[in-house]
Amino acid sequence: MRRRRWRLYVLVAAVLTAGVLAVGAVCFWAKGRGYLTYAVRVVNPGFRVPYHAPRPTVMASRPADRDINVLPDAFVAVDIHLPNAGKVVDATTLSDQTVRLYRSGDRQPIPAVVNTSGGGDDIVLRPASTLDLNTQYTFEVTPNVKDTSGRAFAPYHATFTTAAATRFGKFPAAFERAALPEMSGRMYTCVTFGPDERLYASALTGEIFRLTLKPDGTIENIRQIDAVIEHNGGPRLITGITFDPASTADHPQLWISHGQLPPRGEQGLQAMDGAQDWTGKISLISGENLDEYRDVIVGLPRATKDHLNNQMAVGPDGAMYFCQASHTAMGAPDHKWGFRPERLLSSAILRLDTAAALAQSAPIDVKTEEGGHYDPFASGAPLTIYATGVRNSFDLVWHSNGSLYAATNGSAAGGNTPASPDGTAPALQHVRQTEDDYLFRIERGAYYGHPNPLRNEFILNAGNLTGGADPDEVPAYPIGTHPDRSFHRAIYSFGKNLSPCGGIEYRSNAFNGALRGKLLYVRYSGGDDVVAISVREDGSASEVLSGIEGLAHFVNPVDLCEDARHGRLYVVEFGSKRITLLRPKIGAVSAQVCRSLPTRNLTTTITSTQEPGH
Q: Is-cis flag, bond preceding 111, omega within 30?
């Protein structure tokens, strides 16, 4: 009886094994032919075949793997490959746990701030404090970092060693921080001082706040102004607020640069996608309570992400200047920027004759394509093109030396460039080069390196003139590729992945004038700080200072302004949703200041031997 039962068990097992093998063979045969999916859908009509998107990867890091003599105040930036169309880094997956830095010897983790760019196309890690000297560190990107499709990054790691010694100088200026708890919890975008000695701040979703200050610079009273939201039927992305020179304390006039806030835009810059083109505006609010609203310019172009009409600066001629940012990474449509092409007015510094614009009874529609017919070159046009090739400058500064400065954000690797019509410069696809972030001295009619085929500008930066290492070159071009006509080099390179944004000229005599006349720029990504740049009367840059006490270790600073009466600064920290007050520390000296000398001079024009537009 037991033997028969044992034989029965063997027979049943053999039948089951044969059945499993048969089903497996049929499934293997059906794979790729559609039969297996059909059979599954007969049983479960709602079944969908899972799509396994390719994994995003890290192409390179800075410092590079096995680098030595790295400065202890360095940050780590990576170039990434994003293979899934329209998908970028998911900023919610970034932290110092998913992107890690630790001492290689004892694996001690280093606290850090980790972020990505506004376009979501890079990753930057900034240590919360200065690294140890002569120490090896390991940097890792883990699979817990994902793109916005949910696809995990391929793991990456690199090691580098800090310098055995470094030198820092002293500088007779320092700031102390003061929290403004009333200004926390919102994504602010811009700050400025008004003629009424009040601080004004704008928010990502269109609100403007009028802040009455106490004698110590903290907040006494807040009034919310919703004119932009009320007259546009909902939230708008404000990218600039500037008072008209004719404003007085009793009769303020505030110019506002704003554009459509796309779906999910309230969640931050990395969620900024799907914006409609031609939705940019320049508007004016006035009246004692700033409740009188007027659209002055409409129909400005708009990138699908966070590039649009940016902060405005009033020139010595009384006109308004602003950067109309690019629609693309490097001049030709690409998947990260929704394949939207450049427009006639994009990637340029524009000049608005405010008197001529205000003389019109209706808003001026400056749409130039897709049914629009505005001509910025027409005689008497109120909005004109002042300079071209400026990819994305969030803020402009008219300095007391008469120069106009624009700090720009360069593209991450992976962009495309257009081909020149005569074939001398081919179209480049997926350029494996991250651009530097530059400081330009803007001159009328000059070209600064970002292509726009509608203006016959095809060459990225300086092309590739020789077989050697050329400044601002793009090695992917054939040797002998000349830059476009009127190309002007930058007067200073911030380096890669620093993302300079808001800027001012420091006007106060605090610190016995040690900072007076210097350009101050916040650096959004790798810097997370405020850098000071000395400029000469001829407009060139002479010295760059970083590490001034109180001007470092912010969280994604995007703008700043000065209360020149007291030398105080107000810094918008976009990443931590707050505005921070910086007060001068009288008599204090910063002991760990890094001084550097720009390697560029003002003679930066390259004369091309090619025909215009080539």
A: no
C-alpha count within 13 angstroms, C-beta hemisphere, residue 105? 5
Task: Note whether 161 and 256 are same-domain residues.
Answer: no
pLDDT for res 572 = 98
Q: Residue 262's closest CA among 280, 236, 284, 285?
A: 236
* Within a domain: 51: no
d(C-alpha 394, C-alpha 509), whole Å: 27
Domain membership of residue 580 (yes or no) is yes
Q: Is residue 48 part of a domain?
A: no
For residue 17, the enclosing domain spans 2-40
| DSSP annotation string for 471-506 | TT--TTSPTTBPPPTTEE--SEEEESS--EEEEEE-
**340 shares a domain with 426:** yes
Domain-ending residue, one of 142, 166, 190: 166
Lowest mean pLDDT across 16-20, 82-86, 258-262, 373-377? 16-20
Q: What is the pLDDT of residue 49?
A: 43
Which letter does DSSP use for residue 266 in this model? G
Residue pLDDT, tens place only, 331-355: 999 988 999 999 999 999 999 999 9
Q: What is the CATH number of the domain that holds 272?
A: 2.120.10.30
388's tokens:
């071209």
With contact defined as beta carbons under 8 Å apart, do 240 and 559 qualify? no
Coil, helix or strand for 29?
A: helix
Q: Encoding tokens for residue 480?
A: 């002998």
Q: Give the integer Cα–Cα distance in Å for 534 and 387.
A: 24
CB 265 within 8 A of CB 237: yes
Query: Domain count of the chain?
Result: 3
Q: What is the pLDDT of residues 508-518, one digit of tens each?
A: 999 999 999 99
Per DSSP (E only), the strands in 172-272 are 175-184, 188-193, 199-203, 208-213, 219-225, 236-243, 253-260
**pTM value surpassing 0.90:** no
